Amino acid sequence: MGTKTTISVILLITGLIAFGFITEYSTGEVRMQEGIKAPNIKSNHWFNSDSLELDKLRGKIVLIDFWDYTNINSIRMLPYLQTWHNRYADSGLVIIGIHAPEFEFAKRPQNVETALIDFGIEYPVALDNDYEIWNAYENEFIPHKYLVNTDGSIIDEQVGEG
After folding, report:
1. pLDDT at 157
2. pTM of the full predicted structure?
């Protein structure tokens, strides 16, 4: 990593601390054991990207966001995520949205695509209609974010808006 990239990653981590993604003291129950390898993301439908595999993203910081375009708590986080994507993607941050629909109509790819356009989301989003990714992460909440380090291990998570 070059000096500029290292500084950018430090600024990103500082920002994640400021927004409560990385904390010295946990304020809630940690679902995934710290240091556990992040489960792979398998989806038949991707938006804004070809299929992504976490193994191929080694060396990058990955923020995985379980969300639904009909969920107000998810919607409130989208501007922050898009801003982080715009600022830090070139420095190695990869944001991956996992769209886990709460309602039947939110399973339709064309509705998700319309929401992505309406909200200005440009980072990769996987459709998780059957909750396969959700279950692999033992997730129970929307929104729920997992921070994955450059080795592919989950180092922190945030439930709710943060």
Report:
1. 92
2. 0.79
